[in-house]
Design goal:
Layout (H helix, E strand, L loop, with lengths): L10 E2 L3 E4 L6 H8 L16 H12 L7 E7 L4 E12 L4 E8 L8 H15 L5 E6 L4 H10 L2 E13 L2 E11 L5
Length: 184
C-alpha cells in the first residue's frame, strides 16, 4: 500500500511554483496577514502579532488533502514567496471544493495569481477529479472578482447574507462557480 503524502505536491507553471509552506515563510505571510487594508475582504481578522501568524502557519504546513491543502506561491526566477493559494471545504461525494488566494500587495497586477489559479484549477480537475470549484468573494472585493472571472468562474448568486463572521461583524459574500470544462 502506498504511503500517503505528507506535504502538498509541487505544481509548476511558466513563472510561478506552488510549493508546500515552510517554517521560513512565516515572516512573509505575516506581512500579508497583518495588513488590515489588504485583509479587509477576507473571512478572518488581520493577524495581531507574529505569534498569531506563527500559529496559523500550522494550518499552512499541514497537509490534509481530504479537507484542504495550502500552497505557497513562489516566483520561480528568484524563489521569492509572493502569496498563498488553497482549496478547502472539499466535498468528496459532490466532487466540489472552495478555493481562496491572497498575494503580497507589491505583486498585484502582474498576472501571478491568474497563473497560480490556472495551475491549481488544472490540478483540482485533472488529478483530484473535482467537478466544481467555488469561490466566496465579498461584493466590495473587485480585484478578486476580476481574478475569478479571468479564471473562468461565473457569478452564480449572492449576496449570501451574513456568511462570514469577522471581528464580531457579519459579512455577506457573492458565490462564484467554475465547472470542469469551463476553466480558461
Amino acid at each position: 500500500m502506498a504511503t500517503p503524502r505528507k506535504t502538498a505536491p509541487i505544481l509548476d507553471s511558466k513563472r510561478i511554483r506552488l510549493r508546500p509552506f515552510r517554517a521560513g515563510d512565516t515572516a512573509t505571510m505575516h506581512t500579508i496577514y497583518a495588513d488590515a487594508k489588504h485583509m479587509q475582504y477576507w473571512s478572518i481578522e488581520p493577524s495581531r502579532s507574529l505569534e498569531v501568524t506563527r500559529k496559523s502557519m500550522r494550518w499552512h504546513v499541514a497537509y490534509k488533502p481530504r479537507y484542504y491543502a495550502m500552497w505557497a506561491v513562489e516566483e520561480k526566477k528568484n524563489r521569492k514567496l509572493i502569496g498563498m493559494i488553497n482549496y478547502h471545504r472539499r466535498d468528496l461525494r459532490e466532487r466540489r471544493v472552495d478555493m481562496g488566494w491572497v498575494v503580497l500587495p507589491d505583486n498585484t497586477g502582474k498576472g501571478y495569481m491568474t497563473e497560480a489559479g490556472q495551475t491549481l484549477i488544472r490540478y483540482l480537475i485533472d488529478t483530484l477529479k473535482i467537478h466544481k470549484v467555488e469561490a466566496l468573494i465579498r461584493k466590495e472585493n473587485k480585484p478578486s472578482q476580476a481574478l475569478a472571472k479571468r479564471l473562468g468562474f461565473r457569478l452564480e448568486g449572492g449576496p449570501l447574507r451574513d456568511r462570514w463572521l469577522v471581528g464580531g461583524r457579519w459579512h455577506s459574500v457573492m458565490l462564484y462557480g467554475l465547472i470542469a470544462g469551463e476553466e480558461k
